[in-house]
Structures are given as C-alpha cells and as structure tokens.
Amino acid sequence: MIHTIPVKKENYYKAVFMTMSPYLGGLTDYETNLLSEMMNLKIDRLSTENRRRLLNKLNTDTYTLNNYIKKLKDKQVLTGVTRELFINPNITNNINDKTITIKFNVS
Prior knowledge:
The chain has a single domain (9-96), classed as Arc Repressor Mutant, subunit A, CATH 1.10.10. Helices cover 50% and strands 4% of the residues. The chain contains five helices and two strands. The chain has a two-stranded antiparallel ribbon with strand order 1-2. The longest helix has 13 residues, at 62-74. It starts with 11 loop residues before the first helix and ends in an 11-residue tail after the last helix.
C-alpha cells in the first residue's frame, strides 16, 4: 500500500520529521521544528555560527536550544562530538530521497 501525503515545499522537512517521530524516540514539536530548520537552512554541522543562525530563526535563547540539542543527541537523532554535531546520516539519507518506506517484519 502506498499513501501519498501532499506537502508544500516549505513544510516538507517538518512533515517528514512529524511522520518519523515515533521511530525517532517521539520528537516534541520544538525538536521537530529544530530539525526541520536545520534542513531548511542546509545546516550540516552545529558549529557556533550555525547555532546562532538557528537561535535567530527559532527566536529562542541559547539555554533552550542547547537543552533540545542534548535531548536530540540522547535520542541519537544528532550524532558526533559536542561542537560538531550533525543529523544522523541514517535519517538524512532517507529524507533526501523524498520517499520513506516502512516495512513490517511479521513473525
């Protein structure tokens, strides 16, 4: 069965992360927004400059952003070392294909 979900281009990444949320440890709205903005802004690494860009775009403070970055790291959605975190490649590879396949292994 194939189910097509119509999505506007500017909302694509948010829709993807909302759909994948149960498989990524249950993302909160803020985590979904953070990840989708990283993709929209083409942020591949969370450097100091990219964190500033996210702070401005999300209209938030450093403390809140860092807390959510830690939560995403704990869920293994973000990976890498502290100053060079990035979205797990297992996630981004599937997102960029514009297709998500969910398979059930019934035993």
